[in-house]
Amino acid sequence: METTLRKTGALLGKDLKDLVKNPTMLICTLLPIAFVLLYAQMSGGSPEESEMLSRYLVSMAFCITAGMVGSMTVLTAIAEEKEKNTLRTLMLANVSAGHILASRGIVAFASIAVVDAVCFAVLDVPADQMGSYLLISLLGSVPIVMIALLLGLAARDQMTAGLYSLPIVLVAFLPSFSMANDTLEKLAPFFPTGEASELIELSAQGSLYTGDALQPLLVTLAWMVISVVAFALLFRRLSRDN
Amino acid sequence: MAEFSSIEELAADDRSVHIECSRETSAALLAVVRARYRTQRCAFVLETDRGFERDSVASHLRFYGSIARSSVHYEDAISHFNLRGVAKRKMGGLSPSALALVNLARASLFEPEMCFLERPLSDLDAEGRSIALAWIADRMEQGCRFITTVEPLREALLMPGVACWHEEGRFIAVDQDDDEDEDGGTAYEGDEVHVLKIPAHTETATLLFDPRDIDFAESMNKATYLSVRGERYQTPRTMDELERELSRAGFFRCHRSFLVNVQKVAKVERYTRNSFNLTLSDAAHSSIPLAKGRAEEMRERYRW
What we know:
- The complex is a heterodimer.
- By secondary structure, chain A is an all-alpha fold.
- Chain A is built from ten helices and no strands.
- Chain A is globular.
- Chain B is of the alpha+beta class.
- The interface of A and B includes residues 7 and 93 of A.
């Protein structure tokens, strides 16, 4: 246990440092903040419209952050390690795939929390809801990060990682565009980030602790459980291939 | 001639072994060695190890130091492998020789009982080779087993342990010379200038070399090669014939497989009780093994 903590701790330090030093990763990680800042400029109508827009932007910020940060800090980062053989060097130094993924997962959740917090702070929403936004955002991001970890193990290099990150980003973003038409609106709740973004909107409306939140909460938890179980099942097989 | 009939047999031996083989064989060997030494402290250095390119050398070694957590501090490894000058440089911008030393420094952090190295000397200059060989010899004296894969065979002979080459699934050990001189020894008649040319074949011509241009001759896989200004030329002469002809021109049989132009020797180095190397003043600063039994003879003959 002590060894696991020491190794994961060392990896964590390295991965966090790399996140800051790698311009591509840093820009993609901070992109959701830029999006939110841009969209926030659109507000300017009546106070009701402004408030509605802010509510929408809060849930959109969550979706974009989960997709962009999840795929970048996990999938691309693992794929780069594979492409440049640093993953093999690590594994030959008696570092297990579990240590590596644990560190990458922690970096992903920490980055998501920071980026989400900045996005929410930029938007004009009640500050007392910050705790619940962040909690829901982190829970809602679990499926995306789990899928990204698995795809990171499956990706051969950064080119394939680029390809694999497309569906992640699309799936994560989709609920933000659910109002575009009826079909998307019907589909959105079944997507991993769909009901979590609904929960965030409810929270922004101040109706998080009502019956309306029950179904989204259950679906979000179900996605979490499904993704964690799928990860546990596939992790061993995929890490053996490395 | 000693030999190992399979990779498993080679891995099961407990001596240090240095093998001239293909990359494919090296990969197969790595897998077997990894499985066999699973429970021991191991260090692996592969040709493809480049490290995190945005990381500095010091931070790279500090990271592996905290993974290994042995009694070797990463700062000591930096000093030991003479990396102080590049400690702040990014891994991605290192020269191949500095990278090879960083990789060995990383291995040293693990204080390994088993160390697998792929082509450890290939990218090193004379100074780097000397540091690397000294570390290998030192570690070996402390009981570490080294398995290295090299190209060419000469590099295997530079390291203490069994040198062998891979051929059709078998690993054939080079006769490790030489406490008694089996060849009977050629009587030394003093250096004289003779009209003497050594033939070597290329695809289209036979070249005739002046002995003064030859840095050294080596025999490998039953063929003999001359090293002239960094190029290798195959000669029809056997090692013994060359020794007879060239001993008058200042050449010395420093190892069963090597005949060196003594005029080109710049440095004699001793790493352990049993391992000596000669560093030449040729363009590549080549290192040549000096067999233990012949070191004394060489010292006496040239009064060093």
